[in-house]
Amino acid sequence: MVALVAPGALVACGSDDAGGNSGGNGGSGGNGGSSGGATALSDIPDGGGLIVDGPDGKALLVRNGNEVKAFNAACTHQGTIVEAPQDGVAVCRNHGSEFDTTTGEATKGPATEPLPEIPVTVEGDQVTFA
Ligand code: FES
């Protein structure tokens, strides 16, 4: 009934702690995306996108039909996670930067650098980070 989460005990991918409950499996906050590497294609709004846990922090998945692209969701200005896109634009609410989600390019500052693209593969209904 009490969740024990050890501060600083972030274990990214290892599992050498085979002794059972290492805690902290309750999602890391944010926008409620899927955890792990796979996301159902059908969970991503067609023509829109979704913030999920990526290989290196939060990732933005963008879908157009059966085509999916992924970008690191951390704003290239100061690292705030951008919002899921609408009409092909992902907005960072921190200072108002906007990113074109077909290319990742910053279309409105203060950010000037594009969101880095992350390779993904789509197999059936599963989208995984390559
Ligand atoms: S952190 Fe995104 S606009 Fe400043």
Automatic annotation (TrEMBL):
UniProt cross-references to Gene3D superfamilies, sorted A to Z: Rieske [2Fe-2S] iron-sulphur domain (2.102.10.10)
Positions of the UniProt region annotated as Disordered: 23-49
Keyword Transmembrane: no
Keywords of this entry: 2Fe-2S, Iron, Iron-sulfur, Metal-binding
Annotated CDD domains: Rieske
Residue span, Rieske domain: 36-129
Database matches in SUPFAM superfamilies: ISP domain
Biased composition annotated in UniProt, kind: Gly residues: 23-36
Protein origin, superkingdom: Bacteria
Record-given protein name: Rieske (2Fe-2S) protein
Lineage: Bacteria, Bacillati, Actinomycetota, Actinomycetes, Pseudonocardiales
